[in-house]
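Aim 2 progress. For DUF2515 domain-containing protein, the working sequence is reproduced below.
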Amino acid sequence: FFWCDQNTERLMYALIINEQNTIQTPIIQNPSFKKNVFDTIPFYLSDWFHFNTVIFPSSDGFLYGISVKRFSKTEERIRLGKQLSQLLFSPELFSSFYHFLHTVPHTGSRFDMEKMIGITKRTSPMLRTCYPEVIHSLDGEKTDWFHGKIKKAFFKREELPKQIELTDWYLHKKRQLHALFAVEHWLKK
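Predicted structure tokens for this construct:
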């Protein structure tokens, strides 16, 4: 199909659709992951309070992104993927995202982007100092998810949320998390 019309957006949507369907059974529906991740109170609370958000930092000091909602639903992950692709490749913002990517050393810490919005003190560690490198494999878990037709709606462009510039929202959520951790620390005393 792509070779005929060279529709890169449709190709990108097809990749998103395939990826999200591919992980549905071996990861999202995996009994161990369901019990220990997706069916836990912290997971539900993070969804309810919008603590799971994909953020694209820009070189001009703004954060853009979209909150993750109902992550265990394939359709919602497909919608999110399409929205994120629209945001990332938007003509107004892409060059600023690209410039950030190529000028800021990546450590896996939120501080990489927080420096761009005026935060001068690191409050989150570098990812590689907290977690070991883990190799995930779907070997033995692979199944063919495609059994018929793909919903035409999956190939339709999604509307972006009204609020995609999240700098102030991010700072507010950061304060909420610090308050939550302070309460947790106080309760453990």
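The chain has one domain: 2-123+152-188. This observation will guide construct design in the next reporting period.
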